[in-house]
Amino acid sequence: MLASVVERTIDTWYDEKGTPPAKREEMNGFRPNCLQAKAGYKARPLDGIWAAGPFLHNGSVPSLFDLLSPLSERPKTFCLGLRSYDPVKVGYKTDCAEGTFTVDTGIPGNTNVGHEFRGTGSGGSGIIGRGLSEQERWDLVEFLKTL
Ligand code: HEM
């Protein structure tokens, strides 16, 4: 439906402007108006990621530093609900206090596995890169703050 509406809208614009076929092809990027990505989970852009914690699609990792750490070092439980920000690890503070609730990553749907930098990075489910030294993680956190 969306593709059809978009196509009609574009064609109407081309018709109104009298755009010749060759120019239309060029402006279409020489590709059909359809989904270009293969089937798979599409990661969001990382612009403003410093403000988007907790991380991963299910909010199961509280900070960017934790996300760059191996699963064994990610918090298994943490509290959410505070509005105080942690500019060091980059994410909301996870202290438990009145009004907060506990995220338990052991509950189905809350799992914090995947997107892991571990070992040589040469295999394993959810492993996307080699293990990062602590300094490399802090350096990446600094970079991510700038996006
Ligand atoms: C140093 C390299 C990388 C950095 C700093 C990085 C950073 C991030 C961050 C911060 C997120 C969380 C986004 C959010 O919570 O909204 C994310 C998500 C994601 N990244 Fe990466 N990433 C890196 C490499 C990769 C690689 C190599 C892949 C694929 C092979 C990948 C695939 C994904 C996917 C699929 C998600 C979404 C996961 C989800 O929401 O559960 N990333 N990345």
Structure description:
16% of the residues are buried. The longest helix has 16 residues, at 2-17. The strands form three sheets. The protein has a two-stranded antiparallel ribbon with strand order 1-4. It has a two-stranded antiparallel ribbon with strand order 2-3. It has a two-stranded parallel sheet with strand order 5-6. A hairpin with a 4-residue loop joins β2 and β3. It starts with a helix and ends with a helix. The protein has two domains: 1-36; 49-145, no CATH class. The chain is built from four helices and six strands. It is α+β, with helices and mostly antiparallel strands and 147 residues long. Residues 41, 43-44, 46, 49, 52, 55-57, 64, 67, 115, 128-129, 140, 144 line the site of protoporphyrin IX containing FE (HEM).
Distance between the termini: 34 Å
Structural class: alpha+beta
Number of domains: 2
- Broad shape: elongated
Q: Going across the major beta sheet, what is the strand order?
A: 1-4
Which ligands does the model contain, each kind named once? protoporphyrin IX containing FE
Residue stretches low in confidence (pLDDT < 50, at least 5 long) are none
CA-atom Rg in angstroms = 22 Å
Fraction of residues in H or I helices: 25-40%
**How many strands in all?**
6
Strand content: 5-15%
- Mean pLDDT metric: 94
Characterize the main sheet.
2 strands, antiparallel
Element order: H for helix, E for strand? HHHEEEEEEH
Count every helix, treating DSSP H or I runs of 4 or more residues as helices: 4
